[in-house]
Amino acid sequence: MKILNLYAGIGGNRKLWGDDHEITAVEYNKEIAEIYKENFPNDTVIIGDAHQYLLNNFKQFDFIWSSPPCQSHTRLNTASFPSGSKAYVFPDLKLYEEIIFLKQWFKGKYVIENVIPYYIPLIAGEEVDRHLFWANFKIGNYIVKNKKESHEKAQVAYLEKFLGYDLINYKGNNKRQILRNCVLPETGKYILDRALDIKEQEDIKQGQLF
């Protein structure tokens, strides 16, 4: 199956997908994209604008996962400046652009992931763990296993061990945020497996019609 992994980060959602699929990952930050490539050398990694890549290339894929930036939707919803002051920001509605676009035009299976926002979502999604998911298939109930209650407050060493990443070569000062941005690998695998199961069932039904 051809998979498009948008706003890929270091690939938390992709970590347990294996190598049986043809995966293209799009990440804007070059250094983060290099970490992804080190962990998943068989994937095609594109450094660029995921939003525009989706528009230009969506027809080429069977399954699309998109995790647009969540900072403008989180309950914190502020940007920090060196002075320590805060500035409120508008929610980035590219999130909803992608939900509407894929629902209308994409023929395969898709899932879009973001945080549970500080406002009532403009389009209802399914809540799993600390995320909302919008998909054209039923994700269903899923309980995250082996996750400590302190996960959201955990520091880099714990998150690296928990997620299975080593960022020792990353020079930026935002390691914790990069790790916190990851969808848990088990959640990513569960959702892909659900999409595959539903696609298989649909293919069987379609075959029976003929």
Structure summary:
This protein is 33% helix and 19% strand. It is an alpha/beta fold and 210 residues long. β8 and β9 form a beta hairpin.
Key descriptive features of the protein:
210 residues; alpha/beta; Rossmann fold; 7-stranded mixed beta sheet; two-stranded antiparallel ribbon; 6 helices; 9 strands
Structural write-up:
This protein has 210 residues and is an alpha/beta fold. It has one domain (2-209): Rossmann fold (3-Layer(aba) Sandwich). Helices cover 33% and strands 19% of the residues. The protein contains 6 helices and 9 strands; from the N terminus they run ββαβαβββαβββααα. A hairpin with a 5-residue loop joins strand 5 and strand 6 (86-88). The two termini are 23 Å apart.
Query: Whole-Å distance between the termini?
Result: 23 Å
How many strands in all?
9
Report the CATH topology name. Answer: Rossmann fold
Q: Spans of 5+ residues with little confidence (pLDDT < 50)?
A: none
Question: What would you say the CATH architecture is?
Answer: 3-Layer(aba) Sandwich
> How does the major sheet shape up?
7 strands, mixed
Walk across the major sheet and give the strand order.
Answer: 3-2-1-4-7-9-8
The CATH class, by name, is: Alpha Beta
Q: In total, how many domains does the architecture comprise? A: 1
Q: Count the helices. How many?
A: 6
Radius of gyration: 17 Å
State the helicity in percent bands. Answer: 25-40%
Mean pLDDT: 88
The proportion of residues in beta strands is 15-25%
- Secondary-structure class: alpha/beta
Shape: globular
